[in-house]
Design brief:
It is built from 13 helices and 18 strands. It has about 450 residues and is α+β, with helices and mostly antiparallel strands. The chain has two domains: about 270 residues, Zn peptidases (Aminopeptidase), CATH 3.40.630.10; about 120 residues, Alpha-Beta Plaits (2-Layer Sandwich). The strands form five sheets. A six-stranded mixed beta sheet has the order 1-2-6-3-7-17, sandwiched between helices. Strands 11-13-9-14 form a four-stranded antiparallel beta sheet, with helices on one face. Strands 4-5-18 form a three-stranded antiparallel beta sheet. Helix 3 crosses helix 13 and helix 11 crosses helix 13. The two termini are about 15 Å apart. The model has no long low-confidence stretch (mean pLDDT about 95).
């Protein structure tokens, strides 16, 4: 089978994979989740894998597929996720659940995050099995709640440690830098907080009560402005930066290979950045903690105007942590700040997701150095070492519970727009990803 036909097989399977609306954030898509799981099971069994499922009380099925050869070979576990973010037609040029090719890219929800990336390894390994050229025993772990922050995953990893045991762990679930291959060596931790406040169960007429009844929008706007300095980028929660280390000489050297802030501004299509003073884009998102305000809801935002003072409002806050921070103390100090500022006439509720910690990966291991060389050969460029602003909670579970670092080899293009409209995967990078995957898994 030639490499081009591998790509054709990949594209055909991806078209089927993308068509499933496996949206984990909305219970209405449970049926689509199950269809995706059934399709994956059939695909693995057809290609000589054994398949089983594990599942927590709050989550969708986690598929475990295994392929063992007679020889006593090392085992690689490949992790990915089959669930995707929501996608309506707003902003999409084509149907988000129909794989579409244009401008040398494939478009569709999940094409990079993460169906398109995990499928690269599936297709490669299936072909190597058929040819008798597979270097390792293989385990695949594909979950259906990565996009919701799988609250059962830590327990599932601990309860199924023997099933998940492997010599190496590989995750492809992110973006390369520009067109340069990338080995990721750290991930930020995180958690989400929803703060809801209420002055009354009903809204008020802004003419009859305006200026007299407290406005929840005004309080929340004032409160969030006291959590972060908009001029310096500094988070204003007590002890937030305690334990955060200065950057090492090696980190500074690696950062010098990253694109400049002006290149990032052009790529993102913004006019300015808001990094802390003295930080570049990549040092900020990779090695510094922060908070971001990800949602703000209140009042009327439909057509025309509804002249009211809303009875309630909410804000959603995303925390990003780095090594050395005390997450529980930071959250406690956030609550102390809230209680000190909120007037007694507001009722409030704070809801928080389970936090996950940051991860630092050893990039000096033999397998990491071999991976760097394979990436260099596949892409024709020596890889960049990248410090990643996002988080993949299971990587911490692999490290803490199974005692193993994870090879974080992202394959997607930096402008893929994952989670947004017109998510896309460059054809050239797909082919290079297939080439790397083959070199990694082939005898």
């Amino acid at each position: 089978m030639k490499h081009d036909s591998i790509f054709e097989q990949y594209e055909a399977l991806l078209s089927d994979y993308i068509a499933f609306k496996s949206i984990s954030t909305d219970p209405a898509y449970k049926g689509e989740i199950q269809k995706t799981v059934n399709w994956l099971k059939t695909l693995f069994i057809k290609n000589k894998f054994s398949v089983q499922f594990i599942q927590g009380p709050n989550t969708n099925p986690v598929l475990l597929a295994e392929y063992y050869q007679p020889d006593d070979l090392e085992t690689v576990l490949v992790y990915g996720h089959y669930d995707v973010q929501p996608a309506d037609n707003d902003g999409w040029i084509s149907d988000p659940f129909t794989l579409t090719e244009r401008d040398d890219r494939l478009y569709g929800r999940g094409v990079v995050d993460n169906k398109g990336q995990n499928l690269i390894h599936l297709v490669t390994i299936f072909d190597l099995i058929e040819k008798g050229e597979l270097k390792y025993n293989i385990k695949f772990m594909l979950e259906g709640n990565e996009e919701t922050g799988n609250q059962d995953m830590s327990d599932l990893v601990r309860q199924n440690a023997e099933l998940l045991k492997a010599d190496y762990y590989l995750v492809s679930d992110g973006e390369i830098v520009a067109d340069i291959p990338t080995l990721e060596v750290s991930l930020r931790g995180g958690m989400n907080v929803k703060l809801s406040i209420q002055i009354a169960k009903n809204d008020f007429h802004s003419g009859l009560c305006g200026g007299a009844v407290p406005n929840p929008i005004l309080f929340l706007a004032d409160f969030v402005s006291k959590l972060k300095n908009t001029e310096t980028g500094e988070v204003l929660i007590t002890d937030f930066y305690d334990g955060v280390s200065d950057m090492t000489a090696e980190q500074l050297e690696n950062l010098e290979r990253m694109p400049s802030d002006s290149e990032v501004i052009r790529m993102l299509g913004v006019k300015n950045l808001s990094s802390e003073l003295g930080q570049t884009f990549y040092s900020q998102v990779g090695l510094r903690p922060t908070i971001e305000f990800t949602g703000f809801g209140s009042g009327y935002t439909g057509e025309g105007f509804q002249n009211i003072i809303p009875g309630k409002a909410e804000v959603r806050i995303n925390f990003r942590f780095v090594a050395g921070q005390n997450i529980q103390r930071i959250y406690n100090n956030f609550l102390v700040r809230l209680r000190s500022l909120i007037p007694s006439y507001f009722e409030y509720i704070v809801e928080a997701t389970k936090p996950y910690g940051p991860v630092v990966v050893n990039s000096d291991s033999v397998i990491a150095k071999n991976t760097l060389n394979l990436l260099s050969d596949s892409y024709g460029k020596y890889p960049i070492i990248k410090y990643v602003g996002g988080g993949i909670p299971i990587v911490l579970d692999f490290k803490d519970t199974l005692g193993k670092d994870t090879l974080l080899v992202s394959l997607g293009n930096e402008d893929c727009n994952m989670h947004g409209a017109n998510e896309n995967f460059e054809l050239d990078l797909i082919k290079k990803g297939l080439k790397f995957s083959r070199s990694f898994f082939q005898k």
